[in-house]
What does this fold into?
Amino acid sequence: MSARVSRRRLLQEASNGFGYLAFASLAQAATHFAPKAKNVIFCFMPGGVSHMDSFDPKPKLAELDGKPAKLESYVAGPNRKWLGSPWKFKQHGQSGLTVSELFPHIATVADELCVVRSMKSEFPLHARANIFMHTGRNFGGFPSIGSWVTYGLGSENKNLPGYLLLNHGDNPPGGFENFSNGFLPATHQAMGVRADGVAVDNIVPADQDRVQRAKMRAVLEQDRAYAKNDPAIDAAIQNFEMAYRMQALAPDVLDLGKEPEHIRKLYGLDAENKHQRAYALQCLRARRLIEAGVRFVEITPPNLFSLNGSWDQHDKLREGHSTNALITDQATTALVKDLKQRGLLKDTLILWAGEFGRTPDTGNGDGRDHHPFGFTIWMAGGGAKAGLAYGATDELGNHAVEKVVTVHDLHATILALLGLDHTKLSYRFGGRDVTLADVHGKTVEALMG
Amino acid sequence: MLRLFFFIGAALFAQDFSQFERRVRPVLAARCVGCHGAAAQMSGLRLDSRDGVLKGGARGALSSTLLKAVRHEGLKMPPDGKLSAAEIGAIEEWVNAGLPFPAATAPMGGGAHWAYVAPKASSKPLSEMLRGAGARVPLAVAMRRASFVLTGLPPSREEMRSTRSLDEYVEKLLASPHFGERWARHWMDVVRYAETYGYEWNFEIHGAWRYRDYLIRAFNDDVPFDVLTREHIAGDLPSNARPDAAIGTAFFRFGEMGHDNCNQFREIRTDVVDNQIDTLSKAFQGVTVSCARCHDHKIDPIPTEDYYALYGILNGSRPIVRTLGARPLNSLAAHKQKARGELARLWLSQASTLDADINAALNDSKPHDAARTQTIARLLDANEFDSPLSALRARNAAAYKKEQAAREKFNREKFVEIANFTEGVPVGWTLSGHGAAYAKAGDFALAGSGPSALHSIFEGGVYTHALTDKFNGTLRSPYLPRDKKFLTIEGFAGNLGAVRAVMDHCVIGEDHQLIENREAGFTRISNKNEQPLPVYIEFNTKDDNPRIPERDERLRITEAQLANPRSHFGVTRIWAHDEAVAPKASLAFIEPLLSNAEPDPAKRFQAVAIAAIERFRDERATALDAKWINWMLANGLLLNSRHSAPAVAEYRKEEARIAPPVVFAGMGDFDAGADHPIFIGGQATNPGKLAPRHFLSLLPQELRAAKGRAELAASIASERNPLTARVYVNRLWHHVFGEGLVKSTDDFGRNGAKPSNQELLDALALRFIADGWSTKKMLRLLVTSPLFQDGSRAPRRLDAEAVRDAILAVSGRLDRTLYGESVQPHRQIPQAYRRLFQGPLDGNGRRAIYTKITRMEGPRFLEIFDFPAPLQTRGARDVTNVPPQALAMLNDPFVVEQSGVWASKLQGTFEQRLTEMFETALAREPSEEEMKRWRELARELDGPRLWQDLAHAIFNLKEFLYVR
It folds into this structure.
């Protein structure tokens, strides 16, 4: 059997071998109640997308545009003015969901979306808010939601980590703590997969396969003689073998060569903008990884405008948001459509969220600042109620006022969709049974289909 | 009503305590009084006396509450698990019987948690308790074990050959300088050691690596652990004997820290203190005090009041940049004195012809120096009030007096002087660094480089460069009143001298600005008055400024500026004010000219100038004299050239040899501190009553009193402290045997693991104290014990540093140099704007402990092998067994590269080389069967990379990565 054939067979194991039957039983065993979703794709939009320019229309803001603004906010200061949205809003689909022209593609799947317009975070600073959105805490050392989910549900694919982070090699503020396993076992830590260059650390074999296999054979013979029946050594030996198989990830699961032209086009792999292509690549990889049984995939966009998250438009809102939307809009939509046509959307929850929103007023006429008091996120598939716009901010988009959903509530709801009770999914650390939402958070049933 | 009933009931049934003693007291003692007894009174409740039960706590009179709580109706008590039905029944009966409770018994101690009472001596000898269960391993195996445990490196072939006994080898290892590296690194996990603050911009924690070197030295010198403890907590205070004791306080500074406005984001500060409390209490006491931030600890007797009592103690110290050691001895002052005479002589001679040049400019007469005459002509036409020369024009004294009066009025009305340094340093202001000192008028600073002879002559104030601008310095204010919006500083600075407002101890806040004027002038800063938070200001030279290196987007600081060893500032006065205007400069220095009787204007000017220079020469110069001379130097009336005085060259020769000061982030006390309010629910915006400062109330009474870090250090580093020695000895045990006697190394509380052998732990703790808190003695005892050599032990994977260091040691690339600045880790994608710079693949061959720990992104190779994120105390690392470790060994370029390095050093026949490889990497010879196996492999792999491939395969052996 040639090495190539061997790897091909591994791919089959990785992407098909552990089918849904096996998975379903695994998941059922671990959940607290019947799950609606089995996997999650978290499209994280660092920097903070402006809600009143995307999914939360505020006509009143247009009326007041340019007039002196009074806002109770950490950015409150003299000479601030209300800023109407530069983008027009329209209703879409049967649900009549209102989406701005910033996201023309996403608007076409409006009926799949479960939009929450009454999100509330607690921290108007990137590092804290990012870590809060990921871990339910405002400082590092706690597990990311992706780690909690893989800890709670296990991984379906025994050849790949359960939590993969598709990024561009850099971390948003807060660093890797956003994606860390915290005190959970290290297997639940996110493994980064970069868009450019070598996708995963050490994933490319250093040797020709023939050489590697010869070395491994000798090593395994030595190892088996070294410690018979020691569980740690046995596990290390298994890891050694699995590491060998994981090397197939890059050439096989991540290789989009086998994707047909129309799928590649659907995601925008032929786009002119290279950043759009990079994001499209990661979205298509996300679908393939979900197919291969990876539990939790997080995608972050390329960081173009601000060191603190690409959406962080304190100035040049029009240019920044337009470009970020261009880069992410088509591929995000393709992900929804592609998962749907493959029958995977019902099991896969897509979460689209930044760490906070942006202010309805401006200090410089063309920028919006950090705004945790009311903002928008959306979900799709995975048991989230489709075609829904839930909750509301006040008429200026300032405070979430109706059916407020906190970050803890969002976390609780996501876990609930996965069949996990956020009060029960816990890990004993530092003398406490620690949970994702700490002592906070309530499941928002209305968001569940 | 209910209460009355019970009171009567008690009277009726009080005589019979037998049911209480048999069924109730044990439950109260075991499950309740730990938190509601003598040691702690959570919710104000005590259950160790009848009065206590009757009085109840915060929830009011107790009897009914007690029953509901134990039945878990609403309130659920005890929190760590419901009582059994029988226990609840006993309490119900007891309550119904009217709470019979013997009055005059001692407080219940039976419920005290094992770790909170003193260790007990054992009748068994330690040697008996340290016996192994099975056969001893062969010497070679014991040596490899001991070498990794004590130094983190594999034994060398020479050691394997020459060593006769384990005892002999252990002595060698304990004396090895690599011992300190190994044990310093273990302790660095405990103190969450990092070299950057993380958050958004990853500012540098200044001199963090000095702490690492201090630890290495301390472990190598076997500094007693109680001394080390005192230095960590209060090494900056005068009672410490060791010269670098203050570096210990860097311990408080390794936590994550944000740069944003602490008024708006109170948690930036409160999280820092929380992390300090958490680290301090876990590291030294094995208790989780930070659980009591928002509410009384649920399990351990740690009320919220304890947390804020400790908060108050730590908040009484400022996080500052400290300078190590005394100012280096130098004779710069003597050179300066010589230069003073030479310069005065030169200037007097230049002044002797001033009248001719002034007259030439005024009257077109013949000049002495045509160029100077032109300058004078220009200055004569300058602003009428601020130039002494223009004052020579036909101005009358009255006009100046009127203008001066107007300026003084303006300043008086708009400004309040809050500090004046011209006559000395006001009370409450403090200086640090080699340079910062008060200097009287007429003192001066010579220039260490450049064309000028001197920086300037001082008008009197605090200056950092009186001897050299290579010396660092900080001037710190007391807490400032905040009833005015602005502060204006009169002073100057050079090369990144800055002034910073520090709110609520947020030392990397954005409120800092460089003082841009190089000559005396005004700098205005905002005085933060939004909230009642303590604010002070600091003036810093570059090295003392925790905001430098600055982040990309703020202040345009060049690489050349950062690299320049020079930086200085000088401050004379500070005012507070509400209007965003600058004070008006005083015209006082014109006055000597107005009051001088000499009728000829040129001679009048000359007379004033000469008098000023003479007084400078005689060290009697006033502030006005200094201003006069500085003005003349700045305007070219007198020469300021390094060639003017031979002493300047001598000064520079010595000054060039002055080494830059060593600075590090530490702690400093500048006032008596204050009690801190309890933040209700942990919310900084919701302060409650003050928590009087004290240390943990779960400790014996005599260890609780503490107002500041000195008492805190004494309480912790005390042999009467039931936790300190136990927690530390357990840490040593953990590293020697892979698992602590208490598995939860950082939690000895009720939630922590029970000791697997408390008798042994106590005996070791007592021995440790009796042996003078000696780490080496304790390790010698453990590592030479039969238990250590026990053959039934499961193999342990090497920890991250040992994997990496062993690869370097085996390949021959290891650079055994001790100490020094850290080496950046190798990164996939460096991000300069976050100070994540690229480092060499092999770390320059240095041991892993010298890798820079940048909080935003750790050293990747080490993290794969469970190197912990530096966020909180991590006495016991994870030991994971995950595929990325195997991938790293198979494919990481570091491992592959080192395989090549190793291969290139091998010589001899196949047998010789393979034997050498086995001995170096595995501390044993290959068997015949192995020789055969590897020969086969060699045949299969044959090619130019053969030996690199074989070396690579050996690095992948579990036998290499594990210790038996």
